[in-house]
Amino acid sequence: MAKSGIGKRRMAALRDGGEGYAQRRNEIIAAGAEVFRERGYEASSLRDVAARLGTDRASLYYYVASKNELFQLVTQQAVEQVVSAAESVAAEPADAVTRLRKLIVTTVQKYDEHYPYMFVYIQEDMNRIHSESLDEVWARTMLQLGRRFENALLTILNQGVADGVFDITHKHIAMNSIIGSINWTHRWFKPSGQLSGEQLGAHLSSMIISGLAK
């Protein structure tokens, strides 16, 4: 299917647009993150994003093709960095308790660093968005990133069980409980609050490790 005129201009600008184009696109992505965070993906529109920027919706199509693409831009880079950090921690030579503590703290720090981008992703029904996405490559990429994070966490839990420091009967239940505890912070954590991401991660890791320890 042939691209529209604005689609061709957008592709050319992505390739050759320079610093000014990239800066404006990043401003749109940041505004999109704020709108998705406040209103939710389903209730948000590009018109809302345009209003946040004080411009009209038509001007946004020079930078993004759709609300769905904007959501992808908001979330994917942040998720990739979270997963990469978790895999690096899992590969370290430290003992399982040290690595689990560091993975939890690092993950919450990344959520803080990428606020509200990560929380936009977490608060949505991602299975629904994946199934509705017209971009199957993006949907598969995000599902694979989720599995990579799970595998990094399972690597640490398996080592802790093998070393006799974690008392875990069902490792997948433990894994999902840990991920759920971290992700639920999207309901109440704000970087401007009393705790930093590092401090919150330290509190969470202490509670989680206490629950797993023999």
Q: What's the CATH first level of the largest domain? A: Mainly Alpha
Which structural category do the helix and sheet elements fall into? mainly alpha
- Share of β-strand residues: under 5%
Number of strands: 0
Give the distance, in angstroms, between the N- and C-terminal Cα atoms: 60 Å
Mind telling me the C-alpha Rg? Answer: 20 Å
Q: Would you tell me which CATH topology of the largest domain applies? A: Tetracycline Repressor, domain 2
Helix percentage range:
over 70%
Q: Tell me the number of helical segments per DSSP (H or I, 4 or more residues long).
A: 11
Low-confidence stretches: none
The secondary-structure element order is: HHHHHHHHHHH
> CATH architecture of the largest domain, please?
Orthogonal Bundle
* Average pLDDT, all residues: 89
Domain tally: 2
Name given to the CATH homologous superfamily of the largest domain: Tetracycline Repressor, domain 2
Q: What sort of overall outline do the alpha carbons produce when their principal axes are compared?
A: elongated
Biggest β-sheet strands, sense, barrel: none
Task: Summarize this structure as a short list of keywords or feature phrases.
mainly alpha; Tetracycline Repressor, domain 2; 2 domains; 11 helices; 0% strand; HTH-type_TetR-like_transc_reg; TetR family transcriptional regulator; HTH_TetR; DNA-binding
